[in-house]
Design goal:
This protein has 305 residues and is an alpha/beta fold. The protein has 12 helices and 10 strands. A 6-stranded parallel beta sheet has the order 7-6-5-8-9-10. The chain has a two-stranded parallel sheet with strand order 1-2. It has a two-stranded parallel sheet with strand order 3-4. α6 (168-181) crosses α11 (275-283). Keywords: Transferase. Residues 2-255 form the Polysaccharide pyruvyl transferase domain.
């Protein structure tokens, strides 16, 4: 229901293939309970990798973004995390969550988390073998890559909104600023209800061109649209744009963007800006300079050598 998951998995799979070039990879969906077939496959594999940004939270008995329970720990091989994150700012994990994660996460391997906030909360469960590597979507955004991302505004822009973080007043100001700053404006549908939300904004959306809710369409728009920036509330759409060497301005709507900005200098701005402030940012020069934890990334990879 959220095409951003494909952006995450594309990058995670790429990194896993680099680390394990000669092994077969089997996919288990994190949003569904492990099935009888899944249990059979667990007996055949060597190790699980948990990939995703919001897989963990402080009450995993009731909120199952990663849909597992204590019973699953009896049938699953050890799990190693890759760029996982904590969903929203929350209280410390409860006892059930702490026990579950200590049981299912490998004690022999180093776990990769997406930011310092996740590292802090995961350590509070008793899991200590952790490195903050950032999300694997960012791992190739090194200095050589970032220097190829334009600093000046392009003629056109692709933007996104978030169906579960609606604010018609703030988002209307944002769109008005885009219209005053760019020639052609495209909207990419990343989430299931993003388009319905856009339509609810009325006459403001006239002349906006729609990009279908497929990653291939978004990639094509980034690659084939002449002189285009990205701006919007969808974090991984912004990271995908940077992967494609496009200037990206991400509007913060949750802890993921805020923590990535703190840790890695991701180009994130407030969603509470005025029309004039948005226009000033869009029309100004902006250098992309991602600060990657290269040693932590390499140490996580080296454990499998």
């Amino acid at each position: 229901m959220n095409v951003g998951d494909f952006i995450i998995m594309d990058s995670a799979y790429k990194q896993i293939c680099k680390t394990f070039p000669h092994t077969q990879k089997v996919h288990f969906p994190t949003h569904e309970r492990i099935t009888r077939v899944g249990i059979k496959r667990q007996r055949q594999i060597s190790l699980n990798f948990l990939c995703g940004t919001n897989c963990l939270n402080s009450s995993m008995l009731f909120h199952r973004q990663w849909n597992i329970g204590m019973l699953n720990t009896l049938f699953m091989k050890d799990t190693v995390t890759l760029g996982v994150g904590w969903a929203n700012y929350q209280n410390n994990p409860d006892i059930y969550t702490s026990l579950l994660l200590r049981n299912i996460l490998s004690k022999k391997h180093i776990h990769s988390v997406r930011d310092s906030y996740t590292e802090k909360l995961l350590r509070s469960t008793g899991v200590q073998n952790i490195l903050n590597t950032g999300c694997p979507t960012m791992w190739d955004l090194n200095n050589d890559h970032c220097t190829q991302i334009p600093s000046r505004k392009s003629k056109n822009v692709i933007f996104t909104l978030t169906d579960y973080r609606k604010d018609s007043i703030k988002d209307s100001i944002f769109i008005r600023a885009l219209k005053k700053s760019y020639e052609d404006i495209y909207f990419w549908i990343q989430g299931a209800n993003d388009y319905a939300y856009l339509q609810s904004l009325g006459n403001l959306i006239q002349d906006i061109k729609i990009i279908p809710a497929n990653l291939s369409d978004f990639d094509a728009a980034l690659s084939n649209t002449h002189s285009v920036d990205y701006a919007g509330t969808r974090l991984h759409a912004g990271i995908r744009a940077m992967q494609k060497f496009k200037r990206s301005i991400i509007l913060s709507v949750d802890n993921r963007a805020e923590e990535k900005k703190k840790d890695f200098n991701l180009p994130v701005i407030s969603r509470d800006l005025s029309l004039e402030e948005y226009i000033h940012i869009f029309n100004g020069n902006m250098t992309t300079n991602i600060s990657l934890p290269l040693d932590n990334i390499q140490n996580w990879k080296n454990q499998f050598s």
